[in-house]
Amino acid sequence: MTTKPHQETAAIGRSWLTSTAGILASRVFGLLRDIVLAWYWGSTGVMQAAFNVAFAIPNMLRALFSEGAFAAAFVPMVAGKLSDGDRDGAWHLAERAISLQATVLGVITVLGAAIAAAIWALLPETASEHVRLTFLILPIVMPYALFICLAGAFASILNSLRQFALPALNPIIFNVVQIAAVGLIYPLWRMDELPALIIFCFSILLAGLLQMFALMILCRRRGFVFHFRPAWNDPEVRLFVSKILPAILGNSVQQCNNLIDKALVMYLGPAAIGALAYSQHLVYLPTGIFGVAMGVVCLTSLSQAWNRGNLDEMASSLDFALRQMLFLTIPCTILGIVLAEPAIRLLFQRGAFNEEAVRECAWALRFYLPGLPAFCLAKVAVTPHNARKDTATPVKVSLVCIGLNLVLNLILMQFLRQGGLALSTSICSWVNVIALLWLCRPHLPQWQPSSTIRAALPLLIAAALAGLAAWLVASWTTGRLATWPAFPAQAAILLTGGAAGGITYLGLCLLFRCPEPRQLANCRKPSKKLAAS
Fold it and tell me: Which runs of consecutive H residues, i.e. helices, occur in 123-234?
C-alpha cells in the first residue's frame, strides 16, 4: 500500500524528534566536555592548539568514511532491501561493506600514524612548539578514526531499521570518558603537561572502542551479527564501492572546508586556533540537534520512498524538512550573533579561558553563524541525490565549493583573521546547499522551490525583529547588573535576551500564520494528520 505524503511527513517528523532528543542529550554532554576543556586548557595555549589540530584528522576521516560517504552509499542500499522484506540480503551486504570499510580504514590509520611519526622526527628545531606537539600526538589519536567509523557503520544499520534514538545517544560515551579523563589527569597536568596530554589522547581511543562495541551489541540484539568477511568480487560490494568513492567527496564538503580552515589557522597562532575550535563547537550544537538528526531520518525515508516510486512522498518530505530547518535555524543565527559574547562568557570564561579568549572566540562565532542554516540544510539537501543512489552530483558541487573555500580563505584571513576562515566556510556552505537543491529539481519536479522560499521570508522578518528585541533587553539587563558577579550577570543577560527573542519570534510566526510551528507540534500526535501548508 502506498504511503500518503502527509502520513510519511508526520512519520519523518516523529522520527526526527526522537533522533533530536537523543542528539540533544549527547550535545549537552559534549558542551559539558567543552566547558571542562576550556577551564583546563583555555583557548590560547599550545597544548590545546596541538590537540585541536591533531584530533581534526580522525574527525575528518569519520566525516568522509562514516557520517558522510558510508551512510550516503550504504543506507539507501540496505534500506531498499529492508523495504522489500529481504533482511538476509541486507545483512549479507552490510557484513561485506563493513568488512571493506574496516580494511581500508585500517590501512589508512597505519599509514597516517607512520607518516605523522616520520614528519615529527624530521621537523627542524626551529619548528613551532604547537606544530611539533601536533605531529607527536597524531599517531596516538589516528586509530580513533577506525573505531568511530565502525561505530558509524553499526549506527547506519540501526537507522535503516528506523532506530534513531540509541545511535544518537552513543556520543555520550565519548564525552563522559573525556570528562573523566580530565579529572584523573589534572593532578599530573599541574606537574608535567606533556605526559598528561598523551594520557588524554589515549583516553580518546578507549572512548572510541566503547562507542563501537556499544553499537555492535545493539545491532546483535536486532539480528545483525557482524563477522569480518571481505568479498571484493561480490557484485553488490562493487556497486557499493562505485557509490562510496564519489560520495567521499560529495557528501563531506563542510568537513573538508573545516580541515582547510584548521590547516590555515595554524599560521595565525594558538589564540586563533582555539577561537576557531570553540566557535565551531558552538555552531555544531544546533547543527547536530537539528541538521544531523533530520538528515539521518530523511535519508532513510527518502530512500524507501524512491524504492517505492513515490515521488509525491519524496517531495512532501523534502519540503517539510527544509522548512523546519529554516524555522529553527534562522532565529538561532540572529540571536546567536546578538548574544555571542554573553553566551561564551557564561559557558567558557573561567580558569585558563580569559577575556582575550572570549573576544577571539566571539569574533569567529559571529562569522560562522550566518552559515548555520546552510550547515543544517546541507544535511537535508544531499539526501534526494543519495536516496536515488546518485553520488556523482554532490561530487561536482563539492569540488567547486572546496576550491572556492580555499580561495576565499586565503583572501579573507588577511583582513578578518579566524573570522575570515569562518566567513568563507559560511559562504561556501550556502553555495553548496543552493546547488544541491537546484540540481535535484529535474529528478523531483513535484518539489517546488518557490514554496520553500516563500516560507523563509516571514521567518526572516520575525527573526530580525526577535534579534532587535533580544538586543534591547540584553542591553538593558547589562546596564542594570554592572555590579553583579560575572557568572549570574552573564546568565541573566543570556536568559532575558534569549527569552525576549524567542517569545518575539514565536509570537510573530503565529501572527504571520506560519505553518511550521503547527507542523512541528503535530509531529508529536501520531493520530492526527499534518495540516497542509
Answer: 129-141, 143-160, 165-169, 171-191, 193-221
